[in-house]
Design goal:
Layout: H1 10-21, E1 27-29, H2 34-43, E2 48-50, H3 55-69, E3 73-76, H4 82-87, E4 90-94, H5 100-105, E5 108-110, H6 117-153
Parallel strand pairs: 1-2, 3-4, 4-5
Helix pairs in contact: 1-6
């Protein structure tokens, strides 16, 4: 007799803990049998896990999670993940060696097939968004200051804005 079982990746529990520390909920949508997902989910401290998921089940689950919790990021690497990657707010393909359709569908392709990269990607995206917001605020303040300075210093003579041509 030969027994084979999926094992939780060593970095999996740490990645889930890091995502929780960032204030994120973690759900697992697995095509695996209920017993396998039922063992891995709680072992990794995953908030919500679902087993026996076909592609259409994963898209329905992404919609349900969005309605319940807000924006959803979907992480996957296979053909079965592509529809859910497409409808998620952010689709992330792991390893860039997965199925071509998953790579083409995803918004983000993480080059390494390491779960540790997920929290790093979230931190990097949040930092980039903060920088973008700061740049927009600084630009608006600069434009407002320059417009106020221009309005205060530039005095237009009466009648300069009429439609008639100026006298020669």
């Amino acid at each position: 007799m030969l027994a084979v079982a999926d094992q939780l990746r060593p970095e999996g529990t740490r990645a889930v803990a890091d995502l929780h520390a960032l204030g994120l909920r973690v759900a697992m949508l697995s095509g695996d049998h209920e017993r396998v997902a039922g063992m891995i989910g709680p072992q990794a401290s995953i908030d919500d896990w679902r087993a026996n998921q076909f592609p259409e089940d994963k898209t329905c689950a992404v919609d349900e999670l969005r309605r319940a919790h807000g924006p959803v990021a979907m992480v996957g690497d296979g053909i079965n993940d592509a529809p859910a990657l497409a409808i998620a707010d952010v689709g992330m393909e792991m390893g860039a060696a997965g199925a071509d359709v998953a790579l083409e569908t995803a918004d983000v392709a993480l080059m390494a097939d390491e779960l540790d990269k997920l929290p790093q990607a979230v931190r990097l995206a949040r930092r980039a968004l903060g920088t973008i917001r700061q740049n927009i605020a600084l630009t608006l303040v600069t434009v407002a200051v320059l417009a106020a300075a221009l309005a205060g210093r530039l005095r237009l003579p009466p009648g300069c804005c009429s439609m008639r041509a100026p006298p020669c």
